[in-house]
Amino acid sequence: MIKNILNKLPRKHSKLLENRDGGPSASSRSNFGVNSNATAGTNSNPISGLNYGNRLQSLLNTKENGSAGPVPYEALPSFKDVPNSEKQNLFMRKLSLCCVVFDFTDPTKNLKEKDIKRQTLTELVDYVSSANGKFNEAVLQEIVRMVSLNLFRTLSTQPCENKIVEGFDLEEDEPLMDPAWPHLQIVYEFLLRFVASPETDAKLAKRYVDHSFILRLLDLFDSEDPREREYLKTVLHRVYGKFMVHRPFIRKSINNIFFRFMFETEKHNGIAELLEILGSIINGFALPLKEEHKLFLVRVLIPLHRPKCIPMYHQQLTYCITQFVEKDCKLSDTVIRGLLKYWPITNSSKEVMFLGELEEVLEATQPPEFQRCMIPLFRQIGRCMSSSHFQVAERALFLWNNDHIENLIKQNRKVILPIIFPSLEKNARNHWNQAVRSLTLNVRKIFSDVDPELFEECLLEFQEDEARDEETKTKRESTWKHLEEIAATKGLINEAAPVPCRISPNTPSE
User: Gene3D superfamilies, per this entry (predicted)?
Assistant: First the structure.
């Protein structure tokens, strides 16, 4: 009996060695490949593929470290090659296969595996587009896991010295293109089709497309690749439309991005796309507007005029602002006063943008709201009309080309003309740009034709003010001359002494 037992020991030891050296246990690991996974293909449990991607990823990492043989990352059968009863299981396995993330910074690595994954992702897009049954919870979980592993990552950024925020030129500065985009694009397309699919039950999917998922999706808007931001814009808009329960959270989260941008960083690549989404959301607001929406206008949209990089998103911001005014014309007074609060002082190109936005707001403004803000408004327009920068002066004078604005001005000419008349006269006499002088003469003619008596009164008052200014200037010169004579008679002035600078009232201070 003892002999029989001893004879068994080597056989047991050989089995241990066989397992340790990669015998049956190694072959069992290779079953994660598709060709040797026939038993998994017939498994009726849809969760059987959940950890497939994790195991493949660990095997790939092992291969990179040089401690294992070839990785069994092989293409799975096509959906058309399996019966309908097995398609959902195959869908799960394909999702798991796509959970492996490759390095695209090195175009020579994992070429075969990348191509297999790309083809698999394309098949997944087609499957989701043509699905004819509701996605169950296990499928939803695996879909969100695959999307999260592929999309949610640390974004690449260009060195700071390559960027000048204030002078960023959208046409000349090359954005950073992600080398993984051909792969990421298919994942985004898959996510878009999944969210838009009628087979995606919002009540069930909201457990996985949750607040954490939405926040990480919003973080990707800072991507420097404009193609990615464009897809994100479409996806987030579909998420907002599909998951009504998440709408307040999405708006609040976007507001937080704006606050961080305005008051901390003044740097974010996706402000324009986020504003474009909000423009569509604002367009759908019901009337009367809720107080929270009005606060969003006052606390977020209007202060967004302050950052220096406003040219990057001004068009989308203007659209959002005008949407509010068109929905509730009483907000025009609030908007105009907000624009005046953040009006640029030394940035002429920004001033031209503000004048363009002002015209769009005034287009939707009604007489009662116009009358509330017209005095501070036309004080600023008068300063713009007499600007030495011809584009600013020209853009201000173009306001009279808008029939609605011209009618508002004509109705309130008794208040407006006295405010802007000095700018009109000075432009007509002294402005260096011929186009500005011509536009000024046209505006003067409009007022003189509509109300010649008022025009003459303003002209007379302007001439009287000029005479008073001239008299004051003459008195000042006479006083200085008298003081110099007194100082000379008392020997207080010698030839080497500096003469005090005489500052005229029209001389701008430094």
Answer: Leucine-rich Repeat Variant
At 178, the pLDDT band (50, 70, 90 cuts) reads: confident
Instruction: Using alpha carbons, select from 102, 86, 98, 110 the residue that is nearest to residue 37.
Output: 86
Q: Is 438 helix (H, G, I), strand (E, B) or coil?
A: helix
| Three-state SS at 7 | helix
8 Å CB contact between 462 and 422: yes
Name which of 137, 74, 82 is nearest 110 in CA terms.
74
d(CA 318, CA 316): 5
Of 503, 506, 498, which is closest to residue 477 (Cα–Cα)? Answer: 503
Inter-residue long-range contacts of 498-505, CB under 8 Å, 24+ positions, other chains counted: 502/476, 502/477, 504/473, 504/476, 505/469, 505/472, 505/473
Maximal CA-CA distance, the chain: 142
Number of continuous H segments (helices) and E segments (strands) in the chain: 23, 0
How many Å from the N-terminal Cα to the C-terminal Cα in the chain? 112
For residue 102, give Cα distances in angstroms to 66, 77, 140, 376. Answer: 17, 21, 23, 59
Nearest to 258, CA basis, from 199, 317, 344, 204:
317
Alpha helices (runs of H) in 348-412, residue ranges in sequence order: 348-363, 367-385, 390-397, 403-411
Average pLDDT, the chain: 82
Q: For the segment 198-238, what is each residue's pLDDT rounded down to a tens digit?
A: 999 999 999 999 999 999 999 999 999 999 999 999 999 99
Question: Using CA of residue 159, residue 161, residue 166, residue 168, what is the dihedral sign?
Answer: negative
> Confidence band (pLDDT; 50, 70, 90) for 11?
very low
Q: How much of the chain, in percent, has pLDDT values that exceed 90?
A: 61
Q: What is the token pair recorded at 42?
A: 């017939």
Give the Cβ contact number of residue 164 at 10 Å.
12
Q: What angle do CA 346, 347, 352 make, to 5 degrees?
A: 125
Task: Give the Cα separation of 291 and 297 in Å (integer).
Answer: 10
| Mean per-residue pLDDT, 360-368 | 94
DSSP SS3 for 3: helix
Which H helix or E strand runs over 283?
helix 271-283
What is the full DSSP assignment across 66-114? T-S------PPPPGGGS-HHHHHHHHHHHHHHTT-----SSTTSSHHHH
Taken in order 42, 43, 46, 50, the sign of the CA dihedral is negative
| Count of Cβ atoms closer than 10 Å to residue 34 Cβ | 20
Residues sharing a CB contact under 8 Å with residue 98, sequence separation 6 or more, in sequence order: 53, 117, 120, 121, 124, 146, 150, 187
